[in-house]
Structure formats: structure tokens, C-alpha cells
Design goal:
Length: 417
């Protein structure tokens, strides 16, 4: 289908956070060619009546791990070969797309090969921005060893595609690691800047990497015309990241007023992943979490909504993230509903579209239905501004899923064009 003219729709303006009636949208060659009042004929275009449905841009998830199933201590079968996990990741990518997430930023694990496989049409999946392997200090969130593990990770392991992180210590080594991930095609660099939940050897409030190391990583990214995202929970860790020039803070559950103010002044973005912790509570027994891990999960769940309220109050821009692993990715759209406990639907949808596009540095091309943008479109059976659950339930309420002008779900009977 080279040209499609969508009519009889309610257009979701994600910037203004409102529906606009009486509009039509022309898609041509993978892009949105025009948006305007309904009426008039477009030569050569196939007219599609949306039956009053809402037409909105595809959603953007800024924190996924397509390589998480089958790897790491929280996986069901950590002994699976990389080849199996790679194939499994293609199923995860397709599921993301079929839930209406037409763009994702992989926050550690996926590499340029996964991105190319989607772009070349080898697998169906969302538009991808990959981070390669995250950088972690020894004993940091990306160090998979337990407190009782005395084995020293060998240098050669850093070059095997067997995990989502690589250990690098000291300014020369972190520079080398960042340069190597950029060489391998990472769109952005991920760094572990605080303790984590499932990592056994680091408390949540463990502030990781020296300021010199953080600044060195940021310098390498900036000279390669990209940026750094950081795993960080506490206000102290966030402050150090902002001071170092890190652009996006992942999780940030213990954000406080001081760190929120710093983020706002620096123009840094926050990517909360609240659904991940509620799912961890539900799946904790299945994942065999230790008592120390349980304690960390419970503390984080209690503080989640408070952090987004503080961020909203200080004008910190928030993107949407899920951070789901193992068999929990079906809960991805629940992030929208969890945020609705503290935020308005229009702000939540803006996070999932407009702000996400800013984070991946494609404003005006993603996250909006506007002339010149990629034709990443969803036709929704109802109004998401009134009912966010319409974007859940495995895409059941999405009559159309289009990415780059290509139809991946056709509930309208379009058929071959």
C-alpha cells in the first residue's frame, strides 16, 4: 500500500493531550504525508474508514530487555545457550509490537544485530535503539557474582556475547568499554550508577562509579554524538549522575526534591519502571528471590508513586519504561495504569509518545501524528484519554498497528494493497 487516506477518526494530539475530530491522515511511503480537516479526494490513495476510532501514534517503551529471558540469576533457565536466547528475543520483540509499542529502547543486552534484523525485515519488531552491554564496576549492579563467589571474571569474558553487562573499572577501562560498545553499534551507553534489586552483592544505596569514571563515560558518548542513560535509585546517585552530565535516569524510585530540582535544571529525563517491581512481588517465589532481594523490592514498591509525583511537581520530563524480564513482559501496558494513580492520562500518554521521541532524539518523527513523522500508528477502539486499559490486554482493542507505513495488525479488513 503506497498511499492510504484514513478518515472518520478521532485524532489523538499527544502534544496537547486532546482528541481532534473531523480530521484525515494521509500515509505515503512510510511517512505521514499530511494531516488536515476531512474532505477532498487524494489521487491514488486508498480510503480507509476508521469507524470513529481513535488514531494515535505508536507507543515508545524506553526501558526494555529483549535478551533478558534465559539469562541472569532471575531467569527460569539460566543455562540456555546464547543462540536460544537470541531466537527467543525475536518472539519478545514481536510481542512488544503487537501491544502497540512501535519503538523501544533496549536498556542493555540487545545489540546492533537485533536492530538490523528488524530493519531488514528478518523479524517483526519495533523500531529499536540499542545500548549493547551496560557498563558496571566490580561489585556493581551488573556484576552477576554473589557474595560467596570468589571467581575473578576474566578479561576475555567481556568480549563474549553472553550477558547484558560488562565490568570495567578505572577511567582508562571505562573509556575503552564505552568506545567498544560504540564501535559495536550502540545507539547510547548504559551505566550502572547505583545498587540494584536482583543483584545480590550491592545494596540499593550503594553509589557506584567514581565521578571521574562517570564523566569519562559521558565524555566518550558525547564525542560520539550520543548520550548516557544510568541505572540509579537514590537521590544521591541521581545527583551524581546529573552532575556528570548523564541525560536519562532509569528507575529513580527514591528521587527526592533536591535531585528532582537538579534534573529539572539540567534538562535530564526520568524513566520510571514501576510495573517491574509490582511484577517482582507477584513472581518473587517463582524467581527464588533471597530475603535481601525481597527487602529491596518492598522498599522500592512503597516509594514508586511518590517519585513520579515529585518529578511532576518539579517539571522533570518522564518517559515510559517497563523493565520486564522472564515471562512477565505481558504486563508491559500496566505501567500506564500504575502511573494513573498519580498522573493524568494525557500526561501518561505524552510520556509514552512525545517524551519518548525526545529521549531517542527523534522529536517530530516519532510520538506524534504529524506531517513528516514516521507512519507508526494505532487505531484504538475507544478513547485512551478516558480509559488507558484500552492500550492493554495484549492489543485486543487495537484494530490497526502500523509501523513505518507497514500494517502488522489488520482488524479493519484492509487486506493486500
Amino acid at each position: 500500500m503506497d498511499s492510504i487516506l484514513f478518515r472518520n477518526l478521532a485524532l489523538l494530539d499527544t502534544v496537547a493531550g486532546e482528541l481532534r475530530g473531523g480530521m484525515q491522515v494521509l500515509v505515503r511511503d512510510g511517512r505521514i504525508a499530511s494531516v488536515g480537516p476531512q474532505g477532498g479526494h487524494v489521487a491514488g490513495a486508498r480510503v480507509v474508514d476508521l469507524g470513529g476510532r481513535t488514531l494515535m501514534p505508536g507507543m515508545i517503551d524506553l526501558h526494555v530487555h529483549v535478551m533478558a529471558p534465559g539469562r541472569g540469576r532471575t531467569t527460569v533457565s539460566p543455562d540456555k545457550l546464547p543462540s536460544y536466547v537470541d531466537i527467543h528475543s525475536t518472539l519478545v520483540m514481536r510481542e512488544f509490537l503487537m501491544r502497540g509499542f512501535t519503538t523501544v529502547r533496549d536498556a542493555a543486552g540487545a545489540d546492533r544485530g537485533h536492530k538490523m534484523a528488524v530493519e531488514d525485515g528478518l523479524v517483526a519488531g519495533p523500531r529499536m535503539f540499542v545500548s549493547g552491554r551496560a557498563l558496571s564496576q566490580t561489585g556493581g549492579h551488573g556484576d552477576p557474582r554473589s557474595r560467596g563467589d570468589l571467581v575473578e571474571p576474566c578479561v576475555c569474558c567481556a568480549h563474549l556475547n553472553t550477558g547484558c553487562c560488562r565490568i570495567a573499572d578505572g577511567e582508562p577501562d571505562v573509556r575503552k568499554a564505552a568506545r567498544d560498545e560504540i564501535r559495536l553499534g550502540a545507539d547510547q551507553i548504559k551505566v550502572m550508577a547505583s545498587g540494584g534489586v536482583v543483584s545480590e552483592a550491592d545494596p540499593i544505596d550503594y553509589v557506584q562509579y567514581s565521578m571521574a569514571e562517570l564523566k569519562a563515560i559521558v565524555d566518550e558518548a558525547e564525542r560520539a554524538n550520543t548520550y548516557v542513560l544510568a541505572h540509579a535509585y537514590t537521590g544521591r546517585a541521581i545527583e551524581r549522575c546529573v552532575e556528570a552530565g548523564i541525560r536519562t535516569i532509569e528507575h529513580g524510585n527514591f528521587l527526592d526534591e533536591k535531585s528532582a530540582r537538579m534534573m529539572s535544571e539540567a534538562g535530564a529525563y526520568l524513566v520510571p519502571t514501576l510495573v517491574a517491581y509490582e511484577v517482582l512481588v507477584e513472581m518473587g517465589k517463582q524467581l527464588n528471590l533471597t530475603q535481601a532481594q525481597w527487602d529491596k523490592v518492598n522498599a522500592i514498591v512503597e516509594s514508586g508513586t511518590r517519585s513520579i509525583e515529585i518529578a511532576q511537581r518539579y517539571g522533570v520530563k518522564m518517559g515510559l519504561g517497563s523493565d520486564l524480564v522472564v515471562k512477565s513482559t505481558a504486563a508491559q501496558p500496566r505501567e500506564l495504569l500504575i502511573r494513573a494513580r498519580a498522573l493524568k492520562p494525557a500526561d501518561i500518554l505524552r510520556s509514552a509518545t512525545v517524551v519518548g521521541a525526545e529521549v531517542v532524539r527523534m522529536p517530530g518523527r516519532l510520538g506524534v501524528v504529524a506531517e513528516g513523522a514516521f507512519a507508526d500508528l494505532l487505531a484504538v477502539d475507544g478513547n485512551p484519554l478516558e480509559d488507558l486499559s484500552l492500550l492493554g490486554d495484549e492489543g485486543r482493542h487495537l484494530a490497526l498497528i502500523m509501523k513505518g507505513g507497514r500494517v502488522f495488525k489488520d482488524g479493519l479488513g484492509l487486506g493486500p494493497g
